[in-house]
Amino acid sequence: xxxxxxxxxxxxxxxxxxSLLAMNVHAADPIRIGSFLSVTGPASFLGDPELKTLQxxxxxxxxxxxxxxxxxxxxxxDDAGNASKARNFASRLIRSDRVDIIVGGSTTxxxxxxxxxxxxxxxxxxxxxxxxxxxxxxxxxVFKTPQSDYMAAVRILNDMKAQGLSKVGLISGTGGFGSSxxxxxxxxxxxxxxxxxxxxxxxxxxxxxxxxxxxNLRNVKGVDTILNFGFGQGPAxxxxxxxxxxxxxxxxxxxxxxxxxFLELAGDSAEGLxxxxxxxxxxxxxPESDPQKPVVGAYKSEYxxxxxxxxxxxxAYAYDxxxxxxxxxxxxxxxxxxxxxxxxxxxxxxxxxxGTFNMSADDHNGLQAxxxxxLEVRDGxxxxxx
Length: 386
Known about the structure:
It comes from Marinobacter adhaerens. By secondary structure, the chain is α/β, with parallel strands linked by helices.
């Protein structure tokens, strides 16, 4: 009898030891952050700073002890701006890499290609793209960090009205970002009132000269300002053509070109144009009382020191996405996907580089139009207007 009890006790201890070992191994497993970004290709000016941002802050967080006592592991792929590749990489992240959350999608096209799989797999996804369609209508598992193109349109149109401008010549790219921006601008014009679009021109991603479209807009009777909604090379070409034609009307660009890289492409032609942007481009202009100032300043200095390159608002979208993911995981106290999703949806007062995020069941972006600052190009640099 004594031998039987001893044998049973030994067996119990052995089982307990194995279970404890398994628990310790599980506890040491990294939290896997998945990402697909346009690191190369036509949208590399988005994806390159986004990847660099994710890499440096995953490293920093790990050096500081990780999240929930576990290290972070970044699993990323380069979709080169191709929606089909983005779809395939999203599938790989979910099915093969078994990531806990996805922070990525540099472009609207790449993001929307991944959404059906994300929703089916029920995995939290924080997009870094701007179009309103990403989170409107609300999709249960999809969130995003940039303000929407609708918010950008509202901010621009209100600034125009404040300047006494009311008749807009609109020119936009035919890609996903430009076409969505055009649609949201037309919508915002109707809702704001007191302003109208009197000319409407477009250009494709392969166009290398937009003087014909700009000439058409300049010749529209009563036009008193022009807005370009697009990203990539197109807006820089529009800006240079605008200057070459000697158009003296107030000129606006969208947040799609809010970076020092755009200033380098457009050169002196950009002088005087306005756009909505993150305060990241003008951190020194923020008052000490602004809650974003320390966050923006820290990100800018850390990024530029690490990469010896100027910071961009697009990298900031990745910073906010990663920090929101970390905040949600910490709030949930687990990497359980449903719990993390619920935590993301309930985040309030999260101060990021792009703005202060207040998520809800009805709002998976959590930002308002006033999170944009209006900047103007003066002497080749960005200047805060309001």
